[in-house]
């Protein structure tokens, strides 16, 4: 940790990461609120979210290939400028809606120039699509730059610090957004009183410009800088295929990715639907905030423990650690649907978050240390596609399943499935023997 604190690259990455993550949290609060205040239509809100999510999932593999072709720093820098432009346009759009300017045609005649709500919504759709596309390239480049800028010995601590900081911004950001909207106007009187939304988008725009400046200060390690000759000689689709082939040919990575994909398909998306339903059965929206806050706090503690303890907590192997953690998570999930008080749900979610945060650092560090630098973008994009592409499928199916079974049965079944998957993988696959380190 002391060596990491003296690392210039890490300092610049951390500063830019904090600023950009806070800006992202403001937009995550402000954009849905803008759509609801503008239309009052949940279908429009769902479409905006879909326009951001679907392109991200579809193009993230292409993003990973371009990261390896042009280097993560170049791609990440470009996405920051694109995001800044899109958010600047969104800021101007909200300012136009909030205060329609009056243009004087003559001394006795004036014309109010304003964008209609329908046209504003269409523009929001376009900007949301652009933000989703930018994320498809920003995410693999952001996850790939750390192992190319930080010495391998400091990578686990760096992952822990960066992910921990992001988790802190996920707790602070919504509070900052709420305060900003309350101070400057949140649209409660209609979108004409939405100057706070414009400030939120404007702050996010500025955060991308500042984080682009900090990123320019980062110098990739010469020994880790990817050789892009082969990547540039291939088409993008061939480059994506080469990444998939690399993961498939690496047997331990193939086994882990298949296992994680299976868990995400059957369990991951289901929890995204089941937890809000659980909150509604207990007390309501405030309960969801409490239990998700408990999970977030646990995740932060787990990340901190992983970064601080490093390799001092040892398992028999990396694979055994994954399967043990999933088995414990299944045991914690099973009774979640039977809780009678908010504190019981919060305690279970806190423990789950602690486990999740600790394992996230271990998994990301294992992948980053295993993959060659010139394939890092594609490997990370495939890893993220597993969760972005498969979890929504199970989320869609869960709504139908809940018409057939009770919530307690869903959580109990999910916990049993997760324990069964972990036990089956331990008994019948080589995952349990996958090593924590890679030659």
From TrEMBL:
Subcellular location: Cell membrane
Location, primary (coarse class): membrane
Family matches, as Gene3D superfamilies: MFS general substrate transporter like domains
Family annotation (Pfam families): MFS_1
Membrane topology: Multi-pass membrane protein
Spans through the membrane: 12-36, 42-66, 78-99, 119-138, 168-185, 197-216, 255-279, 285-303, 315-336, 342-361, 382-402, 408-428
Ranges where the Major facilitator superfamily (MFS) profile domain occurs: 9-432
Name of the protein in question: MFS transporter
Source organism: Duganella levis
């Amino acid at each position: 940790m002391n060596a990491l604190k003296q690392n210039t690259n890490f300092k610049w990455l951390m500063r830019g990461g904090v600023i950009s993550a806070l800006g992202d949290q403001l937009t995550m609060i402000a954009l849905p609120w803008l759509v609801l205040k503008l239309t009052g239509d949940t279908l429009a809100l769902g479409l905006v979210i879909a326009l951001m999510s679907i392109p991200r999932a579809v193009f993230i593999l292409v993003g990973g290939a371009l990261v390896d072709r042009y280097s993560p720093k170049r791609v990440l820098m470009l996405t920051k400028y694109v995001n800044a432009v899109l958010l600047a346009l969104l800021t101007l759009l909200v300012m136009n809606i909030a205060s329609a300017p009056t243009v004087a045609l003559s001394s006795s005649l004036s014309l109010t120039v304003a964008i209609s709500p329908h046209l504003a919504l269409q523009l929001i759709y376009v900007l949301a699509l652009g933000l989703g596309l930018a994320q498809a390239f920003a995410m693999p480049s952001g996850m790939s730059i750390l192992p190319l800028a930080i010495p391998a010995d400091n990578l686990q601590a760096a992952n822990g610090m960066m992910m921990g900081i992001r988790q802190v911004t996920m707790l602070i950001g919504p509070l900052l957004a709420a305060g900003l909207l309350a101070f400057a106007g949140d649209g409660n009187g209609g979108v004409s009183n939405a100057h706070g939304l414009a400030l939120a988008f404007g702050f996010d725009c500025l955060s991308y410009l500042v984080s682009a400046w900090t990123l320019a200060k980062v110098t990739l390690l010469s020994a880790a800088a990817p050789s892009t000759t082969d990547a540039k000689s291939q088409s993008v689709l061939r480059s994506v295929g080469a990444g998939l082939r690399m993961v498939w040919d690496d047997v331990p990575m193939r086994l882990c990715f298949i296992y994680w994909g299976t868990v995400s398909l059957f369990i991951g998306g289901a929890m995204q639907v089941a937890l809000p339903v659980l909150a509604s059965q207990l007390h309501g929206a405030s309960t969801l905030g409490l239990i998700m806050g408990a999970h977030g706090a646990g995740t932060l503690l787990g990340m901190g423990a992983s970064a601080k303890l490093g390799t001092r907590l040892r398992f028999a192997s990396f694979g055994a650690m994954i399967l043990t953690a999933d088995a414990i998570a299944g045991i914690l999930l099973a009774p979640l649907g039977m809780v009678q008080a908010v504190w019981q749900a919060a305690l279970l979610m806190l423990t789950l978050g602690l486990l999740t945060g600790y394992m996230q650092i271990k998994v990301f560090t294992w992948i980053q240390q295993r993959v060659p630098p010139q394939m890092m973008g594609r490997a990370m994009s495939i890893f993220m596609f597993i969760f972005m592409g498969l979890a929504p499928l199970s989320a869609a199916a869960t709504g139908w399943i809940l018409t057939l079974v009770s919530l307690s049965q869903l959580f109990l079944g999910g916990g049993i499935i997760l324990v069964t998957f972990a036990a089956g993988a331990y008994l019948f696959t080589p995952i349990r023997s996958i090593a924590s380190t890679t030659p």
